[in-house]
Specification:
CATH superfamily: Jelly Rolls
Number of strands: 9
Structural class: alpha+beta
Shape: globular
CATH architecture: Sandwich
CATH class: Mainly Beta
Number of helices: 6
Order of helices and strands: EHHEEEEEEHEEHHH
Distance between the termini: 47 Å
Length: about 180
């Protein structure tokens, strides 16, 4: 995990390792189509690399434009995602509930955060740091490959969804 001095989640209450919340995490991951190729044993291994945090409503989890070194899975609660437009107006782009992921783009590409994420109600998060992702790739290469493929599927699904929402004329063939 990221050292406490640099941990952007330092303001949140650390709840402990993912293995302490195994049943709660599995309850939100196993029904997801993204995890259909993961065995129970692989999901348990993944939980060994997660750290859990709790947050009251109104807590900023990630700030748009800041460096990102982790992704989080919403285990309980709701998180609002906002993006600042060219006109500097903040717009809500999504609300994420249990089983949703946030921060995966920065985890993979190391670029600044694309959006700001704020808890809308008390929420619990399971966090995977970039360091722990790298450890998974070394310790459990098959699990690491499955996890990276799952993240790729998640990001391509979001890209398709955004394309459909933002460019319907391209999809409809009217351009």
């Amino acid at each position: 995990m990221v050292s406490p001095a640099r941990n952007p989640l330092a303001g949140m209450a650390p709840l402990g390792p993912g293995t302490d919340y195994l049943e709660d995490i599995l309850a939100v991951l196993q029904p997801l189509a993204l995890f259909e190729g993961f065995s129970v044993a692989e999901n348990r291994q993944l939980c060994e690399y997660l750290e859990c945090y709790g947050s009251p409503g109104g807590s900023v989890i990630v700030h748009e434009g800041e460096p990102g070194t982790f992704m989080a899975i919403v285990v309980t609660g709701t998180v609002g995602v906002t993006k600042r437009g060219e006109d500097s107006e903040v717009r809500e782009v999504a609300q994420l509930g249990p089983g949703s992921f946030l921060g995966e783009m920065s985890l993979i590409d190391g670029k600044p955060r694309f959006a700001t994420c704020v808890t809308l109600q008390p929420s619990d998060l399971a966090v995977l740091s970039r360091d722990n992702l790298n450890r998974i790739l070394i310790d459990h290469p098959r699990l690491g490959q499955k996890l990276l493929l799952m993240l790729l599927r998640l990001m391509t699904a979001r890209l398709r969804e955004t394309t459909l929402r933002m460019l319907p004329q391209v999809v409809d063939g009217t351009v």
